[in-house]
User: Fold this.
Amino acid sequence: MGTLQYAILGMLNRESMTGYDLTREFQTSLFDFWTAKHSQVYPELKSLLEKGYVEYETEISGTALKKKVYTITQQGRDAFQNWEETAYPIKPIPKDEFRLQLFFSDAMEPEMRLKQLEYHLQQHRQRLEQIRKKQEKFEVIPPKEESQFCDYLVMQGAIHREESYCSWLEECINLCQQRKIL
Amino acid sequence: MGTLQYAILGMLNRESMTGYDLTREFQTSLFDFWTAKHSQVYPELKSLLEKGYVEYETEISGTALKKKVYTITQQGRDAFQNWEETAYPIKPIPKDEFRLQLFFSDAMEPEMRLKQLEYHLQQHRQRLEQIRKKQEKFEVIPPKEESQFCDYLVMQGAIHREESYCSWLEECINLCQQRKIL
DNA sequence: AAAATACATGTCAAATATTACATGTAAAAA
DNA sequence: TTTTTACATGTAATATTTGACATGTATTTT
Assistant:
């Protein structure tokens, strides 16, 4: 079973919701480590339904709008817990198109390389700022029993990741400029 | 045109080689930011051939073993250079199964969460050590005109990435333990 | 009252990527 | 001399993901 299905089970384990709600979560609270579009969510829900890991009730919103509110079953809870407690070997290193461009940048004008480095630094600084805005909502570190504590941990991870990307790019820019002056 | 095709063009831009050689590069020098299996490389070479971006000559190794040695064409060089100098918006945040598990770890025993954190720290420390072994080969920072300089930059990036992953995990472990003692 | 945005659910085609299937030669080690 | 490892090239089936197509309701803004 793919990771996305466990992500869905994990969310439904917290709270029953619709495919639309799940999709929204993938665009917000899970955004810093997992994303999915609605075109992937609905088929996966169907698959989980066939496995008996989720069930749904139809609710009417307003006068005609049908909503399918999905709830995790005991079977689903068991499958989720089993995944959650399994220590999987770490996945292959994520692909990074910019690192690839940089790797080949010896074939490029030094000014162009610098321009590329500065553009990407700017992009990652923006991303970092967006994550820091989330961080500011935490006034204290939440107690470790709450799901808020987990939110805090993964958000810290996202900050670490972007900070290190930025500091690497700064280092690259320095190295490129230094050797220009000498 | 997909990124993998540009990765192949970039390698052939440095030196003519076979699909087998390319696959080996994806497992070694490009490993820290892009990978591909031979089952993906051969069809992509075929596609590049149809586009006129590469051509090949058949060489005989030994008495019977046929090798297809691919060479980039001028058209291929132009396409590559165009990609290389384009500043693409940064890609969505890479997926990370462990961060997903951690995000849901409020539903888990605190000891289990700690066990998971320590396992992943160990895995990433190992990965970091492997990259550091590559780093040790550089006695000085190579001059910026050489492709070695690019190798150095991306390798530094891989070190930054793994170091920050490890320091984040250490921070998480500390936070989990701290609150246990208090 | 109209328009725009958010809510809500799906399918389909295409691109990307992994694993397994399939075959054979060359060189090095046991 | 046999076996194993590296060299060498492909295809097929499957899984994952994205982007486009397709439709309709509810709410908010203009």
Q: What stands out?
A: Chain B touches chain A through 74 residues (CB under 8 Å). Residues 97-181 of chain B form one domain. The radius of gyration of chain B is 22 Å.
